[in-house]
Design a protein that fits this description.
There is one protein chain. With about 140 residues, the protein is α+β, with helices and mostly antiparallel strands. Strands 2-1-5-4-3 form a five-stranded antiparallel β-sheet, sandwiched between helices. Strand 1 and strand 2 form a beta hairpin. About 5% of the residues have low confidence.
Length: about 140
């Protein structure tokens, strides 16, 4: 199983974070893309979430940059291992919105690149492509 890194930006005076660009194969590449290649410019956040959650941050010019590790399965055994890890780690978190997130993350792990296609097929129905809704939930 590989790890890729997502880069997120919260611009000054803007609520929430927005994903910036494609995933990076190294932490150093993500740092460089944010414009702060020196690891000393970054502070490790106090979290241990598996997917899409902050691991490092840099505060400069009133902007906050985040780098989030994303586990990328290489084969079916990795997919099952990641889905199982998500279920065991977060499946008992209180709140329907968090359980919905766990289900969505497990489906992403199990379907891989086919995830958008699987969701589109699910959403399609007798009334067109948006017959059914798919909720991604909220990370715990």
């Amino acid at each position: 199983m590989r790890t890729h890194y997502e880069l997120w930006l919260q611009a000054a005076a803007t609520p929430g974070f927005n994903k910036v660009g494609d995933n990076h194969t190294t932490l150093e590449s993500a740092y460089t893309a944010a414009g702060y290649p020196n690891p000393d410019d970054w502070t490790w956040a106090n979290t241990d979430h598996i997917n899409r959650v902050v691991k490092a941050e840099s505060r400069r010019d009133d902007n906050t940059w985040l780098v989030a590790p994303v586990k990328v399965p290489d084969n079916d055994a990795d997919r099952v291992a990641l889905a199982t890890e998500l279920a065991l780690e977060y499946g008992q978190t209180d709140g329907d919105h968090h359980k919905t997130w766990v289900i969505d993350q497990m489906l992403r792990a199990l379907t891989g690149d086919r995830y958008p296609e699987v969701i589109a097929e699910y959403r399609a129905g007798e009334d067109g492509p948006d017959t059914y809704a798919w909720d991604e939930g909220t990370a715990p």
